[in-house]
Amino acid sequence: MKTIKRMFIFVLCGYLVIGLIWIGKDIITHYLNINGLPILGYHGVVSDHDKKAYFNDYTYYMAKSDFEEQMAYLAKNNFYTLTMTEIEDYYNGNYKLPKNAVALTFDDGLLNFKTIVKPILKKYNLKATCFVIGHKTTIANNNNPSKHQYLRKKDLINDEYVEFYSHSYNLHHKKKYTKKIDTLNIEQINNDFSLNKNIVSDKYFAFPYGATNENIINVLKKNNVSLAFGYNQNRNMTINDDQYLLPRYLMFSEMPMFYFKWIIQ
Ligand SMILES: [Zn+2]
Known about the structure:
This protein is an alpha/beta fold and 265 residues long.
């Protein structure tokens, strides 16, 4: 019995140490890059009703009230939201980050970017970038509130609040252990880029699932893409980062406000 007890305590301590190292690593990385730019990577925002009714377990859709609380905090504390051009200028050393700088990005080109996110951005005078999956704009929405709905091509008009750039035409699908990007050659990836050019600009690009490889880097260069964004690195971007793998924070629906404040501090 004593041995089992000892083993249990040993395993528990092991988990505790691993947990502390994991958290410690994130905290150290955060402070090492504290002078950089936090780039927040959202997906969708749905009404509080729809969140509860249809997307309770779906971490990529935030409830409207939670999202609005974050945006109200940015506005109240005079945060400045950078455009992609300003991020590029900052990366090239031609722009000094203002105090309280942050960048807001939204992946996938969801319809709720137009119906829920943009009105909140306007209300608080904030700017954001939406990375659109080109082929989704061509498939009919089914008006079922429990399904994902996407922007139409006619919705992709840049203005003082929002800008639209590429999240690939159709490079998302992932088999269990294989990312689609890893199954395609340079020509096939380049073909995907050509298809998206008719829909949205690829001057700035967000990798599907944040995944990159040598072939797609080759295509980014070929197409003169200025900056490309990864996902889930959970640290600030700095001018020392790779132009084609800029880090973003993963924004998720259960995110506590203290964590939000900490990452943008
Ligand atoms: Zn995506």
